[in-house]
Design a protein that fits this description.
Elements (H helix, E strand, L loop, with lengths): L2 H15 L3 E5 L15 H5 L4 E3 L4 H13 L3 E5 L10 H8 L2 H4 L9 E6 L14 H5 L5 E3 L4 H13 L4 E6 L22 E4 L4 E5 L3 H13 L5 E5 L2 E3 L3 H11 L2 E8 L4 H12 L9 E5 L10 H4 L3 H12 L2
Parallel strand pairs: 1-2, 1-3, 3-4, 4-6, 5-6, 8-9, 8-11, 11-12
Antiparallel strand pairs: 5-10, 7-9
Protein name: Alpha-ketoacid dehydrogenase subunit beta
Keywords: Oxidoreductase, Thiamine pyrophosphate
Cofactor: thiamine diphosphate
């Protein structure tokens, strides 16, 4: 099934299995969401379980916090990545802090769904990648699936978590299809996965860039280069052990994400792996990502976003050492 459909089916399963699960957001009900991710859920579960809210992100998250305090498990949708900032205060000063502030007595099982990233030709504030801002905040879990199977199971695990989870959905991958086994036993939510084995260099990515890195590895293979592709899946906490294990094997690392390279998630990965793998590395850890500039108009976004050639150039530079 498509990634968007997998999330829909996962939300449906959660609504069926737990009457305390609620879905809230702008146009999530009658319209089924801008990307139709919640299509049909209000029809089947009613307006008291799948709630169309006012256009007020701070109010949406604030209401979800109150509901969570009363025992509910709200799943809120922020319609687009750039719309999350009116709710940023509620997320980082209330949602993320309540567990610590109450000395562990209060839990806030809230999932904040955020379609993110570019590649769909959208207008301003519709193509941003703010994941590093949330990963920096202790008390939040930050995850991003790259395929339909992970989207289905990671959403289940996020809803079942007693801690708040920021769930970044790669909107340009909504229509990518993959096999989904809804009866499988999923692995840990915050465990990275090797999606392609290799020996010469490790490519680390998450969300929308995993597919690109697989394409890069396939192109490099035609030139006799063996690249390993690691899907992080979780940005906070981050599975450094899996990254380290891969780098100790390949001895080179390139980190790829859509977000700006400057102070992005790749910076933390590069620093940690340099510390952990200093005597294994045969080249500096390189990063490929967006530029430190506002996201451009749609006609220029292909110049802004990392593409095959930009990642292959980083691979060549790392292999040249």
């Amino acid at each position: 099934m498509a990634l968007a459909k997998a999330i829909n089916e996962s939300l449906r399963r959660a609504l069926e299995s737990d009457p305390k699960v609620l879905i809230m957001g702008e146009d999530v009900g009658k319209l089924g969401g801008v990307f139709r991710v919640t299509d049909g859920l209000q029809k089947d579960f009613g307006e008291s379980r799948v709630i169309d809210t006012p256009l007020a992100e701070s109010g949406i998250v604030g209401t979800a916090i109150g509901l969570a305090l009363r025992g509910y498990r709200p799943v809120v949708e922020i319609q687009f990545d750039g719309f999350v900032f009116p709710a940023y205060d509620q997320i980082v000063t209330q949602l993320a802090k309540m567990h610590a502030r109450s000395l562990g007595k209060v839990k806030l099982p809230v999932v904040v769904r955020i379609p993110y990233g570019g590649g769909i030709g959208a207008v301003e504030h519709h193509s941003e990648s703010p994941e590093a801002l949330f990963a920096h905040v202790s008390g939040l879990k930050v995850v991003s699936p790259s395929n339909a199977s992970d989207a289905y199971w990671m959403m289940q695990q996020a809803i079942q978590s007693d801690d708040p989870v920021i769930f970044f959905e790669p909107k340009r991958r909504y229509w990518d299809k993959a096999e989904v086994n809804t009866e499988a036993i999923p692995g840990p939510l915050h465990k990275a996965q090797v999606v392609r084995e290799g020996t010469d260099l490790t490519l680390v990515a998450y969300g929308p860039m995993v597919k690109l890195c697989q394409e890069v590895a396939a192109a490099a293979a035609e030139e006799g280069k063996s690249l390993e592709v690691l899907d992080l899946r979780s940005i906070s906490p981050l599975d450094f052990d899996s990254v380290q294990a891969s780098v100790e094997k390949t001895r080179r690392l390139v980190v790829v994400h859509e977000a700006p390279v400057f102070l992005g998630s790749g910076a933390e990965i590069a620093a940690r792996i340099t510390e952990r793998c200093f005597y294994h590395l045969e080249a500096p850890v390189l990063r490929v990502g967006g530029y430190h500039a506002p996201y451009p108009p749609a006609r220029l976004e292909e110049e802004y976003l990392p593409g095959l050639d930009r990642v292959l150039d980083a691979v060549d530079r790392a292999l040249a050492y």
